[in-house]
Design a protein that fits this description.
Strands 1-2-3-4-5-7-8-9 form an eight-stranded antiparallel beta barrel. It contains one helix and nine strands, in the order αβββββββββ. It is mainly beta. Strand 8 and strand 9 form a beta hairpin.
């Protein structure tokens, strides 16, 4: 399973980086994201927040449109439940690869884009027993759910602030499987700061 995850992510990076290294028309970009999901603590996949980074590039197809390839990683901080001397912490990480079409409404200004995204998410759980370990230390039990792969949509709109910076808002789908084996689907709503080459 680990090898398939690495292949999934590596394919995205290679797809985005190789044409840039070959000095084609690709415009590489690095994106930092922060967002929220429509999941709750009772879903046992982590907090309803996600932070991540994305590597990608835009290839012009015509004067007002281009193809966008992106691959990246998102992390959902742990949510904590339990009481007394026992606490349960759930968190998730997400790898993804997407292909979209970007249409510029205003040349080098406002744009919209939409496409398909494949995600691969894994949820981990840590159960902490306070003072139950050796010499009074905390004892930690750790295990994870199966990775969940899902294909869905991604939509966004952005504004090119300068040649170097852009601002973007977007939404996309993601699937999880929590440690109880229950599948959960969610939508991520996020904002992003983009650094261009």
């Amino acid at each position: 399973m680990i090898n398939s995850i690495k292949c999934f992510f590596a394919t995205g990076l290679v797809s985005a980086i190789m044409p840039m290294v070959a000095q084609e028309l690709w415009e590489p970009q690095l994106k930092f994201t922060a967002g929220s999901l429509n999941v709750g603590q009772e879903d046992y996949v982590g907090q309803s927040k996600a932070y991540g980074f994305v590597l990608g590039g835009v290839y012009p197809l015509h004067k007002s449109g281009g193809a966008v390839i992106e691959g990246g990683y998102k992390l959902m901080p742990n949510s904590t439940t339990g009481s007394g001397l026992t606490s349960v912490k759930d968190d998730s990480d997400i790898y993804f690869l997407s292909a979209s079409y970007r249409h510029e409404l205003w040349r080098n200004g406002i744009y919209v884009q939409g496409g398909l995204r494949g995600t691969n998410a894994k949820t981990m759980r840590r159960i902490i027993y306070k003072g139950a370990g050796e010499n009074g230390a905390d004892a930690i039990e750790k295990y994870g759910a199966d990775r969940e792969t899902k294909f869905g949509w991604c939509l966004s709109a952005g504004y090119r602030l300068t040649d170097l910076w852009s601002f973007e808002v977007g939404a996309s789908t993601v699937g999880f499987k929590n440690v109880d084996g229950v599948a959960k689907n969610a939508t991520i709503f996020e904002v992003a700061l983009i650094i261009h080459r």
